[in-house]
Amino acid sequence: MAVMKKVLMHTCCAPCSVYCIDSLRAEGIEPTIFWYNPNIHPYMEYKARRDCLKMYASSIGVEAIFKEEYGLDKFCAAVSGDIAGRCVNYCYPTRIGETARYAAEHGFDAFTTTLLVSPYQKHEALKAECEKMAKKYGVEFIYRDFRVGFREGQAKARELGMYMQKYCGCVFSEEERYQKQIAKDRDLSDVE
């Protein structure tokens, strides 16, 4: 008889967790949610995502750990010299590193992340970071290409009335969300 692994799943938000949790549970894996997202800003966005995840975790009976660390100043200082590379050079190492470290120090056999569900993430770089942190902390990384279930998970999240964020999480991704509108407004003001 196979022993079920104790899996810590870094979780960025409730909507992205839906398919990941359902998929792992279908395999007989019961993940423990791990909230650690110091890259999400502003604070009300951080709070909305965290609180929605708390409610969802409670509603489906999944264990959840919330490691609170909010800090716009620290984040901006860390990425200010490399805004274009912030995901790969700061966000992934920071969040995945803390997840792997926590998993290793708290008796988890393995870890994974809901970031693997998003078609908007840099998937191969994220996977490589997870593999690197697994090796560094001596804990298994469970890789799943959850992207196949992204739309399904998002649809279920909408049906459940979850808070649906409009951008990845950091203030720079919020700006990127509006790039076309910013350019259009700038062009219109140049005409006037």
Describe this structure in words.
The protein has 192 residues and is an alpha/beta fold. It has a single domain, classed as HUPs (Rossmann fold, 3-Layer(aba) Sandwich). The chain contains eight helices and five strands; from the N terminus they run βαβαβααβαβααα. The protein has a five-stranded parallel beta sheet with strand order 3-2-1-4-5, sandwiched between helices. Helix 1 crosses helix 6. The longest helix is centred in the middle third of the chain and has 20 residues. The radius of gyration is 17 Å and the shape is globular. The model has no long low-confidence stretch (mean pLDDT 92).
Nearest-integer average pLDDT:
92
Given helix and strand content, the structural type is: alpha/beta
Report the total helices: 8
User: What overall form do the CA principal axes indicate?
Assistant: globular
Rg, nearest Å? 17 Å
Number of domains: 1
Number of separate strands: 5
Instruction: Kindly report how far apart the N and C termini lie.
Output: 74 Å
Beta-strand residue fraction: 5-15%
**Series of secondary-structure elements, N-terminal to C-terminal:** EHEHEHHEHEHHH
Query: What is the name of the CATH class?
Result: Alpha Beta
Write out the CATH superfamily name.
HUPs
CATH architecture: 3-Layer(aba) Sandwich
Main β-sheet, in a few words?
A: 5 strands, parallel
By oligomeric state, this entry counts as single chain
Helix content: 40-55%
> Which strand order spans the largest sheet, edge to edge or round the barrel?
3-2-1-4-5
Q: Quote the CATH topology.
A: Rossmann fold
**Low-pLDDT windows of residues:** none
